[in-house]
Amino acid sequence: MNTMDAQNPFGERGLTASEVEERIAAGKVNVNTELKTKSVKELLIENICTLFNLINVILAALVIITGAWKNLTFLGIVFLNTGIGVVQALRSKRMVDKLTLLASKKATALRDGALVELDLDQIVLDDVIRLGRGDQIPADAVVVEGECHVNESLLTGESNPIHKRPGDELMSGSFIDAGLVVARVIHVGADNYVARINNEAKYVKKVNSEIMNALNAIVRFASVFMVPIGIALFCASANSAYRAWCALDPNSFSTFMGWLTSGESWSAISAAILSTVGALLGMIPQGLVLLTSSVLAIATIRLARRKVLAQQLYCIETLARVDVLCLDKTGTITSGRMEVEGTYLAESDGSVVACSREDGAQLPAGASPDAERIAALDCALSGIARATSADANETCAAILARYADETVVPRAVRTVAFSSAKKWSGATLVVGDQELSYVMGAAQFVLASGDFSRFEPAVSRLASSCRVLVVARVDGFTDEGDMIGEARPLGFVTIRDEIRSSAAETIRYFCEQGVTLNVISGDDPRTVSSIARVVGIPGAEAFVDATTLDTSAKLDAAVDRYHVFGRVTPQQKRELVVALQRRGHTVAMTGDGVNDVLALKEADCSVAMAAGSDAARNVAEIVLVDNDFAAMPAVVAEGRRSINNLQRSAALFLTKTLFSMGLAAMCVIAPPYPFQPITMTLINFFCIGFPSFVLALEPNRSRVRGSFLVNVLKKALPAAVGVLVTSLLCILSSRTFGFEQGLLSTMCVITTCSVGLCLIWRISVPFTLLRRLLFTFVSAGIAVGVVVFPNFFSIARLTVWSAVLTVVFSILGCGIFYRLADLMERSPERTTRLATGFGRGVRVSVRRGGASRSRHVSSTGSSLRRVAAEVRSRAQKRAAMRELVRAEEHAEEGVEPATRARHTGSPARRDRVKVSGGSPSVRKKRYRVEQANGGIRVKMPKTTRKKDQ
Hints:
alpha+beta; 49% helix; 8-stranded antiparallel sheet; elongated
């Protein structure tokens, strides 16, 4: 705490030292509750302690027991994958920490009548703090002296400064735009407005990534089957070795314990462990996990060059799948600064005439105002702005920017600064050889009541989308700074949020990609709608004020009707995102303020501006370092490249997983498992790893279509079936002709590589130069591994008969693969979409293909839930029918008197009312009662007046 060398100019003296000590002892201190990035320890635990790593560590321990160190090569993939995840997480943390605003975390308080400088966490409840222009409010407080304008855009989305007087509350996190006040702190720490919002965002957000979900599902599925299959496979292999030993031992009373204690058992057990580990390794898509991490890490590096920080690898994929993008106006579509929209001349009849367009082009001849009046208006505007530039607020800064290129600006001989009480600023300018006085401010405070009434319609029209200021001529100023004489209006200037130059183009891109755009802002809905129309948001003409959406049902209904929402609270922003997600949409949210934090945390993919609040940056998955919304298409393009290429490459990895599971299950019955870890390394590198990495890094901007797992399975399943068939044939031939284990393993490796080459060929079509070189390299690599390095890869020399069988089985496996692949390609695509028109929980399956296109509607609930829903629906229908019958009787009662009047002297005849949807056997009726939205509709008969006879 530092005592400042300045006398206290205020009436308040603040807390005494003893009062401060009391509050500190009571814990009423402004502790820091900001959202922070994860610690290094948390990031390390998150990336190291995974199910994938645990499975591989256990398998590595089993290999180490056997002493076959060369079979530990699979750990390289584990280390690489973990390293990529850790490095990316630490890099993102470091970047976000650097983006934290370097503003001074200090506050000036009054204590014992003296001004002291405090750290923010030294402020206590009831402290009196001094706040001036540019200061951020450190804690919720109430104004006790002075007046100011507060910028609350980061909290509420309201772009216009809010005028605060004594007794008004200041919210923590907002900024003083103009003025000087003394305020008393009323909340500290977790009770502050910002802290309450941040606390609602302090929960672990589940990453909505289809690729990650698919990988986790595969790993979980494999881990469930690994234990029983591994134990069964090991027992089968050990039992096979024991039986072979018993057959060779002349002592027919040999026991299992005797075999274990013999010197030959350990080598058999080691072989059984290695074959089991080899089978289990094949079930885990190690390379696919590494490939995914690597491709997404490369994507983040590419985006970093475009000043885009991806804090989470899978968010790139999520953004590429987004079908609804929710935009915050302030800071996303607009820059957060103000700009002059236009200037207008005041006409004597109360109308206004634009004297320039936004792009600077002159209006057509005939519509142009007098040049001298335009020059006088520009002179007054530029002169007042330049004269008050020493304490320029956002409005003044916008006018200065408008006339920044003006070389001749009149000199001011007197300046009247802006006052919150007067609502205007003014200056006396030297124009030629005259001294002329002008004022600029709110029309209702500058103009006389009669003049304001005349211009009020025009001002209201301009104010629907902009802030409107009047420029008027006065006779001069008094010594106290008041106007002399009546203000005579020269014209008006309109100020609006500065729209980013790239916003319209970026929004057009998303519209072309079929993404629905919603603008959700805390600002005035008319202003939001106007800006949304300028940048081309579809449906921007219709907007809703969220203050009218006071129930969950109203808000939920508004989601389907509107694309522009104004006056939205932070909680409503989150509810809007959740409502869209309930409809089956993948939702992205952009924002920069504290009021966006809850929605950012809830969205499937969140994007924040670097210049926004610390909390928004820390919860967002993507941070635009240059605060440029135009970088979004690049993120989508990277996501598409990653997803589409991964779908193609993942087929290679999933093929190994599928055939390994099937082969392991078969080998429980007919051991041994034909592959060892080292032989799988040859297949993993040349048939899976290397080609998948090359193919995954190719350019690809096609739209993402279909489910990731389904698309991959359609390519991988035919190859897996081909490998299983050839491996089974090799096992059967080995048993029939008595081939040794090494020879069987070699036959399976060659047949598997043959089917793998066919798969690589198929996914490489259409061929490019890179793909031709890739296929050539893979083919040559397999040949070199089998022929040149047979000992390292445990490749046995084939006999003539085994070589013939291997060729035949390879051709058969390739034929099966191509046949099944063709069937898969011709099979119609099935997509499942949530139909909001039917209500939540209804699945609509759309089958495409062939000459027809059919739809199937089914429930997503359980059978019991569907039965309960059906019973409830029937009860509601019966209740509705009873209500219709009562309405029918009531309608007849109202009609009977008129009927009797028309048929004087005849007995009243009562017709039965026909109920919509009723039995067709009922005779034709004159009255009809129908169900309608929100009630019942009664259609009365048409009556005609009989002509007098």
